[in-house]
Amino acid sequence: MTNVQEFSDRLATNIEKVIVGKRETVELAVITLLCQGHLLIEDVPGVGKTMLARSVARSIGCSFSRIQFTPDMLPSDVTGVSIFNQVSREFEFRPGPIMAQIVLSDEINRATPKTQAALLEAMEERQVTVDGLTHFLPKPFMVMGTQNPIEYEGTFPLPEAQLDRFLLRVRLGYPNSMDEIKVLERQQFVHPIETLEKTVSEEQVLKAQEEVKKVFVAPAVKSYMVDITRRTREFPDVYLGASPRGSLTLFRTSQARAAISGRDFVLPDDVKALAEAALCHRVILGPAARLRDMDAAEVIDEILGGVPVPGGDLSGES
Predict the structure, then answer these.
(1) pTM tops 0.85
(2) pLDDT for the residue numbered 151
């Protein structure tokens, strides 16, 4: 897995020229890319959500598009539309912004549910259907959605089906004082995103995505992942637990985390490190938990503390 480790280090280091002091979040974005998944960035305005998406696209040299969601948007504004050509006397497909490789869905919760639903087929099946015709999306393809968790006026909460399509949910958070000073210094004359260069190719991305799938996961670790996910369904304060897609997310992302660490096998520590980002947005708390100001992260932490951690040789070499 040395090649994947070198790939991820090169990509993450390049992104950090723009996103300062958030190595863990940057690595989660790289893991999402390696797993061919989609990333939901939930945080307050001004912390770099948009810059993270743009930095990933520039670092790969992929096509990039931004969809600024508003309540008056239509599904065709996302997927594209068929227009009748007066010359050829045929309908022509005019692709929408979803037809790019890296798609920033900015303020995704400001769109109506009907428009949000336009992303479902694209995110899961890598295709869009317009007027009965299917159009396949380019590879690699990744949606990076952003939303502000504080401001609720004029927003439409993402339905469970939409949230479940996002592989991981992350938060950037505020930088510490030293990192914030670095941000000021780097943007004194020109924003670093303007000079950010391509550091890996599309071919390298596709190759790394295939390499990650070869990482060994011991049966005991698979059981550990499933036990964690099943506990979310049985937890007394949880109204709706994570679906089997939650277990699959732990499986895929743990493979990627092991690979970027230079290992060809998954450890329970990989699962623990990813459990919150992989499962919190897939858990709906019951009324009693909300009355006690309990959040999904606390539920996941409690579950992790109660599930026995597998031991022994997990490398698969014995």
Answers:
(1) yes
(2) 63
